[in-house]
Specification:
This protein has helices at about 40-45, 75-80, 80-90, 95-115, 120-140, 145-155, 155-160, 165-180. It is elongated and about 65 Å long. Helix 4 runs antiparallel to helix 5 (about 120-140). By secondary structure, the protein is mainly alpha-helical. The protein is built from 8 helices and no strands. It folds into 2 domains: about 1-45, no CATH class; about 50-180, no CATH class.
């Protein structure tokens, strides 16, 4: 069991006093020891593009090359394990149903149109997904949405725009994630 003095950034001084916590990136002293990054490093990390050298915020189990198994059926993981894991990551990032409702509805409405009109050109759905990715990026840059949501959108861009079937698979996956999020 670790003690307060064993936490990263806390060094023992004399007579039970401790050294101030330091930023894990730049080493500056922190004003509050509950944080691991200073204000400047935290602000810089918010602006990092998803493709940068920073570590992925999503577990690899939450990223799919296809939403379908070898039999052509939706994978169990998109409904249960991966959706649960992704929703936990989203909740830690303070993402709620309310914060992504409009983005989710954009995709869900198109999925409903695709299912209702079998002759609808998939190019329209592809454009909708591109608009979704654009809006997610915009919201992340405005700091109204956490970058982990941008990561899930961009990491599934290619597979979701490959075919109508994969697009609908992504919408099912996102539906499973959103169902587990708390509403504000």
């Amino acid at each position: 069991m670790s003690k307060l003095g064993d936490a990263p950034g806390w060094g023992k001084l004399s007579a039970g006093t401790t050294a101030p916590a330091k930023c894990q990136k730049c080493g500056k002293p922190l004003k509050d020891p509950k944080y691991t990054l200073c204000y400047e490093c935290n602000q810089k990390s918010k602006g990092d593009p998803v493709g940068s050298t920073r570590e992925s915020e999503l577990p690899k189990e939450c990223i799919f090359e296809s939403f379908y198994d070898d039999g052509g059926h939706l994978r169990r993981e998109i409904f249960i394990e991966a959706a649960k894991e992704a929703s936990e990551v989203f909740m830690r990032a303070n993402i709620s149903q309310t914060s992504i409702r409009n983005l989710f509805n954009l995709l869900k409405d198109m999925a409903n149109r695709l299912q209702a009109d079998r002759n609808l050109d998939f190019g329209i759905a592809r454009e909708t997904f591109y608009k979704f990715v654009r809006q997610v990026e915009y919201n992340v840059k405005r700091q109204v949405l956490h970058s982990v949501f941008q990561e899930i959108a961009e990491r599934h861009l290619e597979v979701s725009t490959k075919s109508k079937k994969e697009y609908l698979g992504f919408v099912e996956y996102l539906t499973s994630i959103v169902a587990r999020l708390k509403s504000k």
